[in-house]
């Protein structure tokens, strides 16, 4: 395959998304989660973390409890990289998230290559930078403000919970957020507002919120979006306007994937300076 043929990489990613033996028959949601978690370690103040480096290849970051289960996505994408050894893991992981969202009916998201892979774990960002789903609005703002996001962007990005499900053996939580967890939509916001959610302990004794039929669930961080007035205003807008949500999600997710990305020799010098602070 010709180096730089990103359309061929996109096609190869699409082929691995249908997975009959995995969650709901699709690897799409876990590919989105990998792109998200690989990028969400960014710290705006120090310039450390983010999607550049693909540092989740190393045990120090892969063992962060927030990344439990992501080895499945990484292993699947290893098969793609065997076909295209010229692409960096950092580019492949982020591109896979973009392709998966589009494949599942979501918006087109701006993406460009140029990320590089770190050759060892010396620049792995500290564990604990990703959101803790047991927390409330103060924690959510602390995590996302650290990356440089505002309240509107926080809610837009939370709409990714329309995809996939939680597993008790990974996060302690269990169940899907929506009835069709392999299709991107604004259903998550509608359900947050219109369903009755009850705090219950799941099969492993972890408190979460379940609907009346005990089929769908929400996390404490999800419920914080409707309890906090500023967050709720955006939840209501996205529940009522799918096009607005798609537009804002595409912008926020594209921004997320660019966090920590350095291109050009001058920026590389800045990157080395920032990483010295780790």
TrEMBL record:
Superkingdom of source: Eukaryota
GO BP field: cellular response to oxidative stress; hydrogen peroxide catabolic process; response to reactive oxygen species
Species this protein is from: Lipomyces starkeyi NRRL Y-11557
Entries under PROSITE patterns matching the protein: PEROXIDASE_2, PEROXIDASE_4
Pfam families, alphabetized: peroxidase
Keywords from the UniProt entry: Heme, Iron, Metal-binding, Oxidoreductase, Peroxidase
Role noted for this protein: Destroys radicals which are normally produced within the cells and which are toxic to biological systems.
GO molecular function: heme binding; metal ion binding; peroxidase activity
Leading EC class: oxidoreductase
Domain (Plant heme peroxidase family profile): residue spans on this chain: 87-278
Protein's name in the database: Peroxidase
